[in-house]
Design the sequence.
């Protein structure tokens, strides 16, 4: 009996250990690249959820975005615009094949675009398009009803990707995305993983790795563990405290990339106390941005002075940042009529104490900690802050109802790599009255005019000047307070070569990655 | 007799389900965020969907009705097998649950197995050598297991099994190897209590008259334990473990998120964070059904194994 139990125990141990060994053997396959990030597409249809497909490279758009954030040719070789700025002619790349062998033509691109304009109306609805024409197989003409220089930037969004007719079922739903990119879509398990394989017939640089497994892991710590166990070779968006542990390790590489995203607070300009510019400015002076970067972000990030990070062309680099100046903040609050009349440490006006609500969300892990620091800093100037940390959707609902005083947010800036989209959404009154994460219910006639003028101005330098002016006015009027710019941190195993982080996060550039 | 028990239990089950569905529905209805607005925000990809569209969807989702009308509408749909759909993935809730359930079931079953393999021998050994080193070890293990949060245990297991030893995958799905660490983590709490119950039950059983008689007859200790004591001593352990199976399903919520297992727990967490109402309701209801069914099963097992329960029934 004893012997029998012993044998059974040994067998159990062997089964368990054997199971583990199988996995190790798989890890030895150096042609498969395993990577992990937190993002999952919400749909298999790239015209609805195009960011991840574009980043992974199984779909492509007419134009691309380079590492300086500039628009570059992609499926379109070149483009030109008519003198009145209303007719855009795109010359398409010759010899491009979809993954199923279908030749890429202007007709297919037209159908793809028309579909994406409907499926992602919220983004593409801003384009004043009237019709799309196809004069020949390699020419696509987009007619607009007004000048719109940001058109190519909008067409770089993943949702405008070219899809082969074979991607759809009889009812027109995408069943398997067939694109033109360096990788071919193989399978997708929602919230779990996407598998793509090398496209040997790619028109550009053919990928070095045969296969990529993109694992969707929302927990930072789990991504770290996967990296430690070498189950993955690239762990994306690690928090500074986690990434710090790899800086001294020889078998890992830490990559940092400042990206087009700003952490900022938006004031509720609709109601007291932030309907008063002086109070908004006071808060700007009361926040020690340097301290936030150093204490909460462990130095990964830079303090913000305006909307766009300075490495981008569209940033107004002449804006003087709000300095940390408690005395100035106090003076401004005094001038606005908020004083500590009863000596309890909290300012008041007409018998109403200065108690405000800060709403933020926990999906971006650093935001609640930043909120706490802000709470402490505002206390120093006599503002009592209540924190409400919710999930993104609940926080947004709260915001849309106007049920907040300060909204702390991490705002992506160049999903469309042109200021038009963010300016229209966050700072033009048509956007601030209904939408956006920027200036809440803020209205400034001059800003409206400048943004409208910029969206119909063809000359790039002139546009830049107009947007510079908008940025300066926004900082002066302070409907928002910019805190700091993001730095993304990815860690790879040291045998990974050629991996680059994109400043607008539109690509993982996996075709250039090799495993040594 | 057995039919009466089952019918009785099924009737109770309906009552419990109505209660649970009512609580779930109310709690979800009270949670922050407007489901219609959230749905449209995701489907249209805009921060503030048009008010007209929100109003239409409000009506469609029955959000304008008084809560009891909404509840009745919802429950009548559920009875007809319509749990709605996920606004995120556009798939039916039933399909989502069907995809996630096997993972959680596998995870929970393996956890039960691990806890049985570890806790039962440990409890028996502790009972046979009361106040000896094994008993102290059993007590210490129980205290450590009970006082360690699951999250912490998960990380420790990941570090040891996944990184230092390099035997098991740290996260994700695949073969049985992917379930070892999460199942062990999940079984830790159960091991602690099961071992204690096993110990107490075995001590009590060994003090029974029939055991004394067996000893007097000259049977050796091993045979007494194997043939006479074990079956009776195991009964409370089996019942406890049975009822805990449902609890293990609940524990899967944390474990699946940490180990990136696409089970029911992770589905629930995802649906809560994105306020995917119909999936949330579907998951909660599934958890409730599982717990009720397990309780029914445990009752039946007890009925078969415990003569006193059978006698009571008769």
Sequence:
């Amino acid at each position: 009996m004893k012997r029998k139990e012993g044998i059974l125990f040994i067998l159990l141990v062997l089964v368990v250990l054997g199971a583990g060994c199988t996995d190790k053997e798989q890890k030895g396959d150096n042609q498969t690249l395993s990577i992990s990030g937190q993002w999952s597409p919400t749909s298999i249809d790239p015209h609805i959820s195009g960011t991840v497909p574009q980043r992974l490279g199984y779909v492509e758009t007419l134009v691309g975005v380079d590492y300086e954030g500039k628009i570059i040719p992609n499926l379109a070789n070149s483009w030109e615009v008519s003198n009145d700025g209303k007719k855009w002619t795109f010359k398409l790349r010759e010899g491009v094949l979809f993954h199923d062998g279908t030749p890429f033509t202007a007709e297919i691109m037209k159908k793809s675009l028309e579909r994406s304009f409907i499926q992602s109306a919220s983004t593409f609805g801003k384009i004043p398009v009237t019709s799309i024409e196809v004069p020949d197989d390699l020419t696509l003409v987009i007619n607009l009803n007004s000048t719109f220089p940001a058109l190519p930037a909008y067409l770089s969004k993943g949702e405008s990707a070219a899809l082969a007719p074979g991607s759809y079922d009889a009812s027109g739903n995408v069943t398997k995305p067939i694109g033109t990119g360096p990788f071919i879509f193989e399978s997708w398990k929602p919230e779990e993983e996407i598998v793509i394989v090398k496209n040997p017939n790619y028109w550009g640089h053919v990928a070095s790795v045969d296969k990529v497994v993109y694992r969707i892991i929302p927990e930072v710590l789990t991504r770290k563990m996967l990296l430690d166990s070498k189950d993955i070779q690239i762990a994306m968006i690690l928090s500074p405290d986690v990434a710090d542990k790899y800086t001294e390790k020889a078998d890992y590489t830490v990559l940092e990339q400042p990206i087009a995203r700003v952490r900022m607070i938006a004031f509720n300009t609709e109601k007291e106390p932030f309907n008063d510019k002086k109070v908004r400015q006071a808060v700007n002076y009361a926040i020690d941005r340097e301290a936030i970067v150093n204490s909460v972000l462990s130095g990964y990030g830079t303090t913000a002075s305006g909307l766009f990070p300075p490495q981008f062309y569209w940033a107004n680099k002449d804006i003087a940042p709000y300095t940390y100046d408690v005395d100035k903040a106090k003076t401004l609050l005094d001038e606005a009529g908020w004083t500590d009349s009863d000596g309890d440490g909290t300012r008041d006006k007409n018998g109403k104490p200065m108690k405000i609500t800060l709403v933020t969300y926990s999906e971006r892990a650093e935001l609640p900690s930043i909120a706490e620091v802000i709470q402490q800093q505002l206390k120093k100037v006599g503002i009592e802050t209540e924190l409400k940390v919710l999930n993104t959707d609940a926080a947004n609902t709260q915001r849309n109802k106007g049920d907040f005083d300060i909204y702390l947010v991490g705002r992506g800036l160049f999903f469309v790599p042109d200021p038009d989209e963010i300016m229209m959404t966050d700072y033009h009154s048509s956007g601030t009255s209904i939408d956006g994460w920027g200036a809440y219910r803020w209205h400034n006639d001059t800003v409206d005019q400048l943004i409208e003028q910029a969206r119909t101005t063809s000359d790039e330098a002139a546009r830049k000047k107009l947007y510079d002016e908008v940025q300066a006015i926004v900082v002066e009027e302070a409907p928002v307070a910019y805190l700091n710019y993001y730095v993304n941190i990815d860690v790879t195993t040291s045998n990974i070569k050629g991996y680059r982080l994109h400043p607008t996060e539109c690509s993982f550039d996996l075709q250039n990655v090799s495993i040594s | 007799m057995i039919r009466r028990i089952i019918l009785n239990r099924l009737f109770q089950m309906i009552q419990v389900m109505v209660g649970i569905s009512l609580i779930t529905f109310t709690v979800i209805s009270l949670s922050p965020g407007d489901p219609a607005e959230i749905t449209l925000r995701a489907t249209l990809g805009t921060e503030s969907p048009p008010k007209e569209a929100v109003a239409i969807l409000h009506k469609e989702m029955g959000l304008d009705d008084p809560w009891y009308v909404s509840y009745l509408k919802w429950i009548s749909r559920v009875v007809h097998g319509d749990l709605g759909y996920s606004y995120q993935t556009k798939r039916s809730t039933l399909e989502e649950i069907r995809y996630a359930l096997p993972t959680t079931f596998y995870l929970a079953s393996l956890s039960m197995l691990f806890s049985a393999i570890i806790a039962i021998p440990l409890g028996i050994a502790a009972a046979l050598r009361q106040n000896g080193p094994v008993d102290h070890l059993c007590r210490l293990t129980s205290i450590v297991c009970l006082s360690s949060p699951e999250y912490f245990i998960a990380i420790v297991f990941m570090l040891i099994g996944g990184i230092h030893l390099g035997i098991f995958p740290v996260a994700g799905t695949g073969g049985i190897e992917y379930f070892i660490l999460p199942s062990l983590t999940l079984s830790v709490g159960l091991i602690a209590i099961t071992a204690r119950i096993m110990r107490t039950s075995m001590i009590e059983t060994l003090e029974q008259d029939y055991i004394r008689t067996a000893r007097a007859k000259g049977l050796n200790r091993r045979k007494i334990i194997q043939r006479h004591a074990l079956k009776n001593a195991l009964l409370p352990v089996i019942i406890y473990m049975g009822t805990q199976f449902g609890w293990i399903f609940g524990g899967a919520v944390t474990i699946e998120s940490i180990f990136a297992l696409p089970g029911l727990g992770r589905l629930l967490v995802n649906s809560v964070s994105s306020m995917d109402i119909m999936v949330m309701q579907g998951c909660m209801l599934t958890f409730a059904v599982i717990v009720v069914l397990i309780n029914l099963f445990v009752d039946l097992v007890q009925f078969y194994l415990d003569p006193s329960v059978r006698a009571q029934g008769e």
Observations:
- Confidence is low (pLDDT under 50) at residues 14-28 of chain A.
- Chain A touches chain B through 48 residues (CB under 8 Å).
